[in-house]
Fold this sequence. Notes:
Blueprint: E1 6-19, E2 22-35, E3 39-43, H1 50-57, E4 65-70, E5 73-74, H2 80-90, E6 91-94, H3 106-117, H4 121-134, H5 150-162, E7 168-172, H6 180-196, E8 200-204, H7 208-212, E9 216-221, E10 224-228
Parallel strand pairs: 3-8, 3-9, 6-7, 7-8
Antiparallel strand pairs: 1-2, 1-4, 4-5, 9-10
Helix pairs in contact: 3-4, 3-5, 4-5, 5-6
Amino acid sequence: MHLRQQALRIEGLRKAFRSGATELVLFENLSFAVGRGEMLAIVGQSGAGKSTLLHILGALERPSAGSVYFGEQSLNSLSDDQAADFRNRKIGYVWQFHYLLPEFTAVENVAMPLLMRGVAKSEAEHEALSWLEKVGLRPRASHRAGELSGGEQQRAALARALITKPEILLADEPTGDLDSRTSETVFELISRLHEEQQLSSLIATHNMSFARRCHRVLKIENGVAEEVRPEALAD
């Protein structure tokens, strides 16, 4: 894959944690690239390192060894402030838990990333309403987070992740807390917005049905990552 076609490039990535004299190696020598406009599923057992890998790719955590490149930019070389700026401009996150602020309404939660950038409240909330329309929540804009259903909360979280117009979406078990019907609705929404917003998306999931619908699948097992054909995944 040519450099200009790559959204992310990962070279020789290693992550280990120390517990006393013991070293726990989550993964090592991970090397792969994510193409622009590509949707990549990351699968593996709980504890395999899927979440940690997403944290590293989103400049939330540093690897023990190896490099992550966004275009020609090495994320390893970023200071903490530069990493925070990179995350705010280039990355959208959706986690298993929505992390909406319960005391704020849906529109206020979605507007939050723009407000943190210094955008005027009226402009930020206007953009937030537009995004709530995109995820089918415009009628729920004035409801507080706790008044939304689980699926609605996750749709609001997705709108919040994308309001800054990131280039990369990182989703960590985005349907893990939802029932099967709601999960399908949320995954279809992620797929649609991935296409509409021309995102490069990495989705960590236990749902093999969803993983099969991604362009590529990376499986992490026993500290090693291998690419598997989506259609070869079993439920």
